[in-house]
């Protein structure tokens, strides 16, 4: 038996150990503190009736093992955490280490009894998880969140997916927003030298130097909602108005074609074909059309039709070599 404690010392000691996951029964209490089960239950009553404790935790009694422990009430429901983690896993946005970190943090917000259930439902999925990029994203998200709020001017080097781009060029701009789409996080940057806003993929930023606070002129601030709607995967190229023939139902077309609405040329009586139109950046539009195969035919603009033909011809030529 350890050194005798007064009631306050004993109650605090029991509470601290239970918060660390230890469980107590009559035998353990007698060995550790030299008190009876009845005295132990009075100590538990003191803990249970503390309003601060009761808001966050509850005392759990296991009738089979006849022991007591502490469970967290959880700040959010198990279903909510499971949904968030399933969406996060499906996005492939974080590397494995970051996914494990977020999973642990979210599980700590759930009722202790529910944590094992969630872990069981996640095990198979997380074992086969393949991230979109291996680079750590969370530190960048945190840094850009600060720079956006502080309106910091950034000088940066960026590795573009476009081969002809000068990857060593230093650019200057002010980040105005972040968003997630298609497995990656993106930053909307107001470029000072070009006097316009472009979209950059977060993980492609290389060296970043943080400068002074800089206010963007009110008439130069982008319509963030519009930029998000007009950008599909790539934000480069010219801003175009497109019209596509989509070989499926109206509902499927509107769900799948980015930033679209039914065209006035659409035949409402034809349930197998939809004509949709909208606005996108040309590179994003080309990328999306190529991903759809024969499901989509471009009606306009001619520039997109030309770019599509050239790209497809290059693809065919690569198989002749």
UniProtKB/TrEMBL annotation:
Recorded superkingdom: Bacteria
Alphabetical list of Pfam families matching this protein: WYL
InterPro entries hit by this protein: CBASS_pafABC_assoc_protein, WYL_dom
Domain WYL: 145-209
Protein name as annotated: WYL domain-containing protein
């Amino acid at each position: 038996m350890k050194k005798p404690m007064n009631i306050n010392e004993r109650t605090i000691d029991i509470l601290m150990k239970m918060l660390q996951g230890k469980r107590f029964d009559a035998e353990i209490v007698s060995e550790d503190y030299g008190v009876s089960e009845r005295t132990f239950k009075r100590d538990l009553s003191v803990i249970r009736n503390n309003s601060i404790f009761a808001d966050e935790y509850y005392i759990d009694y296991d009738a089979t093992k006849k022991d007591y422990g502490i469970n967290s009430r959880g700040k959010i429901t198990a279903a909510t955490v499971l949904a968030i983690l399933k969406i996060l896993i499906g996005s492939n946005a974080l590397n494995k280490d970051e996914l494990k970190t977020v999973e642990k943090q979210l599980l700590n917000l759930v009722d202790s009894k529910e944590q094992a259930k969630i872990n069981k439902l996640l095990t198979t999925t997380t074992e086969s998880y393949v991230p979109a990029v291996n680079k750590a994203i969370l530190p960048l998200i945190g840094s850009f969140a600060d720079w956006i709020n502080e309106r910091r001017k950034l000088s940066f080097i960026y590795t573009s997916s476009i081969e002809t781009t000068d990857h060593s060029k230093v650019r200057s701009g002010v980040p105005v927003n972040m968003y997630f789409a298609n497995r990656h996080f993106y930053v909307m940057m107001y470029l000072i030298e070009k006097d316009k806003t472009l979209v950059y993929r977060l993980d492609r930023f290389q060296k970043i130097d943080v400068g002074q606070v800089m206010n963007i002129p009110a008439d130069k601030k982008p319509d963030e909602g519009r930029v998000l709607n007009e950008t599909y995967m790539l934000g480069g190229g010219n801003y175009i108005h497109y019209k596509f023939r989509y070989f499926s139902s109206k509902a499927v077309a509107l769900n799948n074609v980015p930033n679209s609405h039914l065209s006035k040329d659409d035949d409402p009586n034809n349930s197998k074909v939809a004509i949709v139109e909208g606005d996108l950046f040309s590179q994003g539009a080309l990328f999306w059309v190529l991903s759809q195969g024969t499901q989509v035919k471009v009606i306009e603009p001619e520039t997109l039709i030309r770019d599509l033909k050239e790209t497809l011809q290059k693809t065919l030529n690569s198989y002749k070599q």
